[in-house]
Amino acid sequence: MERVSIFIDGGNFYYLVLKKLAVTEGSFDFHAFALFLTGSRHIVSRRYYVGTVRERQGDEKSRLRVASQVRYLALLRNAGWETKTSRLRRRIEEVVIDQRVEDYQKLQSMGIRSIKFERMREKGIDVKLATDIMMGAVDDQYDTAILISSDADLIPAIDWVRGRFKKKVEYVGFSFPNDSNPETATRPLLSLIARSDVQRILTKQDLLSFVRDKRVDFNAVF
Predict the structure, then answer these.
(1) Contact residues for 111 (Cβ-Cβ < 8 A; gap 6+)
(2) Which residue in 39, 174, 204, 211 is a FRET match for 20, CA 20 to 30 A apart?
């Protein structure tokens, strides 16, 4: 029987899928999703990679976010998932107001020359995921790696396990068109389609069947 290992980039999955469905990780049935992806094949391992949030002293919203993440990671572990985490880092970024910004002249006329904002960045998640894919191939733990991530940084690891160890990589991508605002659409990554053995592109309708609670949780992790 074909052995499969599932690798989910949690942050990537959140922004590409769950945010578009207006639900949080705790409302998504990852166990049923894994069974859907594997079918009759034998699941060797299920790994979920995510950056963890920190609580800020005196910040109630951050406390709720931490509590929400702790709950859903516990749900994953209870369902047989191995969770791999890394601290989310806060970084201040600056956008210069020039011709690249819509209505930049109006903003400049108001004396606005730049905008600073805080962004959360994951550090090391892609490295952990790539390492596990490679070590799993070295130790002959799987025949097929099912990859749920649209991160091009994983391509060297994919090429390595396919070329050196003849392992199959099954890329799961997503297609959520948005005709009113095409820039916000979710699309599969063409480079991963080209570098994988099997490609599965799921639509919003495919994913809705795994949502246990369609209510929006405003205490989302990110």
Answers:
(1) none
(2) 39
